[in-house]
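Sync notes, pocket subgroup
Present: LS, DG
LS reminded everyone that the earlier model was apo-only. Rerun requested with zinc ion included. Inputs:
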Amino acid sequence: MGKRQFKFLLESNLFKLAKWLRFLGHDVKMLKGKINTKVLIANQDRIFITTSRKWEDWLKKARIDYLVIPRHDWKLQVCMVLKHFGLEFHLLLNKCAHCGSKLTVADKERFRNIIPTRAYETAYDFTYCSNCGALFWKGTHYEGMKRVLEEIKFKC
Ligand SMILES: [Zn+2]
């Protein structure tokens, strides 16, 4: 089965959902402030994810793809987006969780002074974001993330 990659535009309060969609390898852009038509039109190539029904008529008229999701439960939000677009429950971890830029493989020796000792000793697959400088690795939290994703999938 081919991997389906979507481009999303998310309302500014959906940062947790943004993080998870990025974990799954999707192209996620977040609104900086309130929803406005200018920004929506400028990002017409993206699917707009919102918690508000207020813009539905306008979005339809503007022919912008969108999905309305509940405001609070982020796990339900993740579930709804993945189900709705038929996306895989699979962690790709190829995009920065903070800014969405593509991650590159990092040599852990080069970052030794900023990696916590425990992570340096036990973690693997270090990656680096050249856009915002964030460093990522797989370790105990990675197992936790996989469990959370399984849990979301199971309840979904
Ligand atoms: Zn980044």
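DG: The chain is about 35% helix and 20% strand.
LS: Residues 96, 98-99, 101, 129, 131-132, 134 surround zinc ion (CB under 6 Å).
Action: DG to write up.
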